[in-house]
Amino acid sequence: MDAATPALHDFLRPGMAAADLPDLHPLLAARELLRAFSTLFHGGEEVVMVRLLVLRAIGERGDAPDWSPQELREHFAYLDSIKFDTVLGRLRENDLLLWDGQSQRYRISPVGRQALAAIGMLLQFNRQGDELAYVTAQLAAGQAVGRIRADELQHLLSRLNELREDFDQAVLSGSEHRIQQAASTLQSVWRWVEKGTEIVQAIAADADLDAATHRVAQQIGRAQSAMLRQASLFQRALNQLDRHRVHLGASGLSSSDVNRYLRSLDIDGLSALAVDTLGRTVAPAFALAPIALDVAEYELVERERQAQEDATLPPAQAAPESRQAPVSEQDYRHAEQWLAQLAGLRDDVPLADWVPQDNFAISAYRLSLLGLLGDPGAENRSGVSASIAQLPLQWRVETALEPVGRCEVAYLSRGRLQPHAGGHGDAGSAADAAEPATGVAPAPAQDPGSGRSTSGKAATPRSTAKSRGRTREGKPVPADALPAATEPVEIP
């Protein structure tokens, strides 16, 4: 064990030792037996066959287990003498054959006898589907001598689960061939399933076994019960397929017979059946392949999908009660900034110098706010728009365009911003009456952040000087209450 340990450590990660792996302990304990199998199965397939042939022939003579060299040469006279001596030497060097120096005879070692017994049982179950029989036989042998372990039962449980999964897949496939094949497999393993049931019952009745072994035995019992129910499932599936089987007239043949016949043919036979049976249709050159594919996809897939979709409206529901509707918060930063700039205006300035700022959206927004100047309804409002409307300013717009070339504005209507001649006052100034506004000015618009576009409207003519001496109700006011004017104003 120590001599092979360094080679085994080469397969482990740094810091890991073979003694720290519990799953490796049984293999290390049976190293001598495993070395016997390594001796037998090392090399090519031909030399392995010759070694097994020689070892089995030596072990089959039970009445006289000892062999002399002359007896071996006579028995294996059909083998090449040099290669036969090489095989004997390898079996002897690896302790599969023992040489008795006193009697000058060969004898199979106990390790070689164990290897032969294991190989002999394996050869008894070499047909397809006998793997369950082999595992069951191993368990039966262990149960007979009182040596049953949980890991040995796991092999039987794994094979039962694999068979049950294969049977379920065969039923779900709906293929008659697969279902019949699965039913045949179940029939072939039925005897071993019943034998395994007896073994599991004997194991479960043994009170000396550990809890893990009992638990695995119970799982095996449940898996066997599930497999026994598969027979009824197969018969039910075959009956359903029989109802859909197509019979070919009065010939007595059905689609299953045709399917079975076609499965029995090889590639050449299938190709021979297709000779002179396939025709080529004329491909319409006027139909585009992509368009034809789209139409076919709609007719075959989309139409069926739309028919299956549920397009009914949901049932009517009462609208939820809300005492306060949500109101989006407005951003008046640009309007307040424009108000501050207009409030500090004292001289006539062109629109092209003051309106453009930052980008086109803000420039259009600033231009639209100028339409609020002189709005008579601003007295009943509050906020930035009312403050702009009450500014002592007026603006005039001409039909000509003036180039700008900045702030994303190429051209702007030519116009000017003018303070009222009388300073701060209401919208009815004398200057408005003397020189009415001409041109068209944009109408008020929302903040550029609200996503609404600006639009223009005709400028509202200001109140003439005749209205300066009266209040909104038409009553005259005292003369000393009127604002000073550069020109004398007649007060009615």
UniProtKB/TrEMBL annotation:
Comp. bias regions, Polar residues: 451-466
Top-level taxonomic group: Bacteria
Region (Disordered): 306-330, 419-492
Name under which the protein is recorded: Uncharacterized protein
